[in-house]
Amino acid sequence: MDYLGWADRNWPLLRRLMGGHATIYRASHGLIGHRFPGAPPMLLVDHVGAKSGKRRTSPLVYTVDGENLILVASKGG
Predict the structure, then answer these.
(1) What is the DSSP letter of 31?
(2) Which residues of 13-50 are buried (b: 16+ CB within 10 A; e: fewer)?
(3) Which candidate, 57, 65, 55, 61, places its Cα nearest to that of 74?
(4) How many CA atoms lie within 13 A of 34 on its CB side?
(5) Considering just the CA atoms, what is the radius of gyration of the chain in Å?
(6) What tens digit of pLDDT does each residue of 3-16 get?
(7) How many angstroms separate the CA atoms of 51 and 36, rounded?
(8) Residues 10, 28: contact at Cβ < 8 Å?
(9) Three-class SS state of 17
(10) CA angle, 26 then 40 then 36, to 5°
(11) Each residue of 42-71: pLDDT tens digit?
(12) How far apart are alpha carbons 76 and 53 in whole angstroms?
């Protein structure tokens, strides 16, 4: 089983988990959810769906490379 196939089958659950993560992150002002042990830091990105026009929030992993901020976006966060 490949990762993308797993993510496709579990997308409804993953979407709810990401929504819960964003809610806790915002409620704690980033104290909870910014970092998890053994994982890179995360941030929240607010965006608007291109077709639906719906406002969404996605937790993304980021890292710093010198003066650059690198955002990692993938299906599942």
Answers:
(1) T
(2) ebeeebeebbeebeeeeeeebeeeeeeeebebeeeeee
(3) 61
(4) 7
(5) 14
(6) 778 878 888 888 88
(7) 33
(8) no
(9) helix
(10) 60
(11) 999 999 999 999 998 888 889 999 999 999
(12) 20
The CA angle 10-69-37, to the nearest 5 degrees, is 50
Take residue 28 and report the two structure tokens written for it. 């704690």
Structure tokens at 21: 């993560």
CB-CB neighbours of 55 under 10 Å: 9
Is this structure's pTM higher than 0.70? no
Taking a C-beta distance cutoff of 8 angstroms, is the pair 58, 73 a contact? yes
What are 71's two structure tokens? 């955002």
Q: Does residue 13 sit in helix, strand or coil?
A: helix
Quickly list H helices, 28-77: none
- Residue that is written with structure tokens 């830091």 in the block: 41
Tell me the C-alpha distance between 59 and 76, whole Å.
9
pLDDT at 52: 94
